[in-house]
UniProtKB/TrEMBL annotation:
Its main location: cytoplasm. Belongs to the NCBP1 family. SUPFAM superfamilies: ARM repeat (SSF48371). Residues 5-229 form the MIF4G domain. This is Nuclear cap-binding protein subunit 1.
């Protein structure tokens, strides 16, 4: 990488390029000198790279803004290109709805305004454009309130610029910024409050409706900005390097910013129904999601030096670094620990990372990414961050009974993987008390599932050794994971043992699948019946494939046809899954893998898996084990991935069709033009070009036409598969919700007969431990009350959750999780779901949970 690129990229960092110096003024002067020397030779490269760095390292925007300001004194034409390119990029981002790019580019423009590169009035006009669009959107008469998510996003973008340039705007254009603030206040008065229903990390199962009384994200940000304004726009988290160069910068030309237009708002639903409104609202919230839902894990004393607006700014820094450096984990960790702030923020950093890991409906990146970030931060800050992470785990563990079921699963997967990178070291004696809880106690189940996942990542004896400080916890370890092969001896029956041995000999003799099918049908099925046939074939083939995952795949690929022939309908497939579960009853992981692979090879259907999961033996485990839920998650996810992949393939093929049409049209036009052209042959005028060229043009036109036809045929084939996949996923969700409703109706009526989950007013207060401990405490900024429950059970006035109640709460939690995760596929089915499942006979708590997952108001059910 050339030296000027290094200077631009590493500006603001304590690095060799800048001699280990961390003075922003020196960095800017050094970088400015390097760029000025190269500007005449590499102007285009510098323009592209500088804008790229400003977009992808937004925590350095004040530095890049000042750098551009100094360049403005030397080369106005170059800076004009910077402004014009930024305008074009912002317009493209607004047109496509690229939220992150819109937000960062607006911050960059604010930085340019601070450095006298951009006219303050131009930035105000941009703010007014977004404000006008937002106000129109939420207007009941002129707009489409179902798209409030986009309007809120626009206002958030305006407000999030003010920590970086609010003071300068007030100083230079006080009347204009006052008008903007008044407009935002007017917008806040007409928009609808946004409830966190369905998206809260901690479930409000007691129906307190507390979230309706709390500030939503935009209301909270508006409050912070008002406090900042009242405080004279002073904050500690945003560096102002332009002030060091202000005497020079004022001599530069301030550029105008061209007009920007917001994309047209969607038309309001033709029919004023709750379903139509809900579909558009879901689409808007999916396209313009809320970036963060704060997770206040630690006592407020841990962040007492951080002002509310500084917390917002640091969160922005951290989220931006994780967003743009997601492919460079080491670089990501390095930037996160070196933010340009003057106070410590380890606790805030942990809260921000966990808020993303547990973000609902889904985190921006795969949970594995956050695992790696936390590991690298623990290594980068060995004296501080590991204790902070441990404190966060303890706090979340104490609140595990209130944690959303999907978040609980994510936390289990993260923590087990995290421990695997640190020799599985943890003070397990702190959690030994879970053995005193009933088997359905959330904390007990949590520890049990962590140990099960750890065994998957290591081996049984290693994990047993890791819990030596609390040996009694061995009771929660899973079995050693060996296969449960019925025919390892003659105990399973002499006849069956002999048949199994014969089948093993056939496989070793490499007989074909067709030959084995013939033997099964003639010598086993016809003589011994279906039950014995199924048991012998499945148990034997699974035993042959039990050595490794690769062995299993090989067996299913070679002899899957044998299983397919004997399990041709759904009832038999359910029996097949039962047999698989029996063989791997000591190994939850292999059970899930085997069933998943069989579904992949179309040996079993997703509907058969749903039926098996909701069989009585599995229903009894819903609140004490993740085993049936893992199988169900895999099945639903695989079905969803099929339809998602088909959508992507169809979209790609449609683009290819358009491209092929253009190529065909161009080839035909060239051929037609050549045919009409007069040429001289032997002195005589002849219609048509040289025969050789004509032949080549005709061949090219024919080939282009063939390619177009081929692509169209491929598209038609994909569309047929897509139609089939749509039918499959519709049948899957209808079956799933019918099953949920069926198993819940009686337990819910017994446990919560009045249709509500009553809550006691008393709540135990969690004790605060020493430095390594933590507690959920009052979030003074959002006025969230403390909640804490001993041993993970909700208790108050002596009430302890019983097994039936916990079963209901766990199952309802999974209903909400599935509904929320696949809402985009469920909304198109809502009418059918209402007609077939969510009828007046359904239990009100089940209905409320489904509506919560869809973020659908209960008024729609009236």
């Amino acid at each position: 990488m050339s030296s000027w690129r290094n200077f631009v990229l590493r500006i603001g960092e304590k690095c060799p390029e800048y001699g280990g110096n961390d003075d922003f003024k020196d960095h800017i002067e050094t970088c400015f000198g390097a760029i000025r020397r190269e500007l005449d030779y590499s102007e285009d490269d510098i323009l592209v790279f500088l804008l790229q760095c400003a977009e992808q390292l937004p925590h350095k925007i004040p530095l890049y803004g000042t750098l551009v300001g100094l360049l403005n004194l030397e080369n106005e034409d170059f800076v004009t290109k910077v402004v014009e390119n930024t305008q074009a990029n912002l317009q493209a981002a607004l047109d496509s709805g690229n939220c992150d790019r819109i937000r960062v580019l607006m911050r960059f423009l604010t930085g340019l305004m601070c450095s006298k590169v951009l006219q303050p009035s131009s930035l105000v006009v941009l703010f007014e454009t977004l404000l006008s669009s937002a106000a129109t959107t939420v207007d009941d008469d002129k707009g489409n309130p179902s798209w409030q998510a986009r309007a809120d996003f626009y206002i958030t973008c305006i407000l999030s610029c003010l920590p970086w340039g609010g003071g300068e705007l007030v100083e230079q254009v006080p009347e204009e910024i006052e008008r903007i603030m008044a407009g935002i206040q007017a917008y806040m008065s007409i928009r609808r409050h946004v409830s966190d229903t369905g998206f809260s990390v901690f479930e409000d199962i007691y129906e307190s409706n507390q979230s309706d009384n709390e500030k939503d994200f935009l209301e909270d940000l508006w409050s912070r900005i008002q406090d900042l304004s009242n405080n004279g726009w002073k904050l500690d988290s945003v560096p102002r390097p332009h002030l060091s160069f202000e005497p020079q910068l004022v001599a530069g030309k301030s550029h105008d910013f061209g007009p920007i237009s917001c994309s047209d708002q969607s038309d309001p639903p033709a029919a004023l129904s709750g379903i139509a409104f809900g579909k558009q609202k879901h689409e808007a919230e999916s396209k313009y999601p809320q970036r963060i839902r704060r997770l206040n894990i630690f006592p407020s004393s841990k962040n007492e030096d951080v002002q509310p607006i500084d917390r917002f700014v640091v969160e922005e820094y951290l989220l931006d670094v994780m967003l743009f450096l997601n492919g460079c984990r080491k670089e990501c960790a390095s930037c996160m620990v070196g933010l340009p702030v003057s106070f410590r923020y380890e606790y805030l950093m942990a809260e921000t990372i966990f808020s993303q890991l547990l973000l609902l409906p889904r985190p921006p990146f795969k949970p594995m990414y956050y695992t790696l970030v936390i590991i690298d931060l623990c290594k980068a800050l060995p004296g501080a961050f590991p204790a902070v992470v441990a404190g966060a785990v303890r706090a979340l563990f104490d609140k595990i009974s209130d944690l959303d079921m999907e978040c609980r699963t994510r936390l289990i997967l993260w923590f087990s993987h995290h421990l695997s990178n640190f020799q599985f070291i943890w003070p397990w004696e702190e959690w030994a008390h879970v053995l005193d809880l009933p088997k359905w106690g959330p904390q007990r189940v949590f520890v049990q599932e962590i140990l099960e996942r750890e065994v998957r990542l290591s081996y049984w004896d290693k994990i047993k050794q890791s819990i030596e400080s609390a040996p009694a916890l061995e009771e929660l370890l899973p079995p050693k994971g060996t296969p449960n092969f019925k025919y390892s001896s003659e105990d399973g029956g002499k006849t069956e043992h002999a048949l199994s041995s014969e089948l093993i000999g056939m496989v070793k003799g490499r007989l074909s699948s067709r030959e084995i099918v013939s033997w099964v049908e003639d010598s086993v099925l016809a003589v011994h019946g279906f039950d014995i046939t199924l048991s012998v074939v499945v148990q034997t083939l699974l035993n042959i494939g039990s050595k490794s995952f690769t062995h299993l795949i090989t067996v299913l690929e070679r002899y899957g046809q044998v299983i397919s022939r004997i399990c041709s309908d759904q009832d038999k497939q359910v029996m097949l899954i039962t047999e698989v579960s029996s063989f791997w009853k000591n190994n939850t992981q292999m059970t899930a893998i085997a069933i998943d692979r069989m579904m992949g090879y179309r040996l079993i259907s997703n509907l058969a898996i749903v039926r098996w999961v909701f069989s009585p033996s599995n229903v009894d485990q819903f609140h004490i084990s993740d085993r049936p839920w893992e199988v169900l998650r895999n099945a639903v996810n695989k079905t969803y991935n099929r339809i998602s992949d088909l959508r992507k393939e169809m979209s790609s093929l449609k683009k290819s069709v358009l491209s092929a049409e253009e190529s065909t049209s161009k080839a035909r036009a060239e051929l037609s033009a050549a045919e009409l052209k007069l040429t001289l042959m032997d002195g005589e005028p002849v219609l048509g070009e040289n025969p050789v060229r004509m032949k080549r043009l005709k061949s090219h036109a024919d080939k282009a036409n063939e390619e177009e036809v081929s692509i169209r045929e491929s598209l038609e084939a994909k569309e047929a598969l897509f139609a089939q996949a749509v039918g499959e996923i519709e049948a899957l969700f209808i079956s799933l919700y019918k099953s949920f409703s069926s198993v819940l109706v009686e337990p819910l009526s017994d446990a919560f007969g009045d249709g509500t989950l009553r809550r006691t007013d008393a709540a135990d207060e969690m004790p605060i431990d020493d430095e390594d401990s933590s507690a959920m405490e009052l979030d003074k900024e959002n006025e969230k009350p403390k909640k804490s429950h001993a041993h993970g059970d909700r208790s108050g006035n002596g009430y302890i959750v019983g097994e039936k109640e916990q079963w209901c709460l766990s199952t309802l939690g999974y209903v909400r999780a599935f509904t929320r995760q696949y809402a985009s596929e469920i909304w198109p089915l809502v009418e059918k779901l209402d007609a077939e499942v969510l009828t007046k006979d359904v239990h009100p708590l089940f209905l409320k949970t489904v509506y919560s997952g869809l973020r659908r108001p209960m008024s729609d059910s009236v």
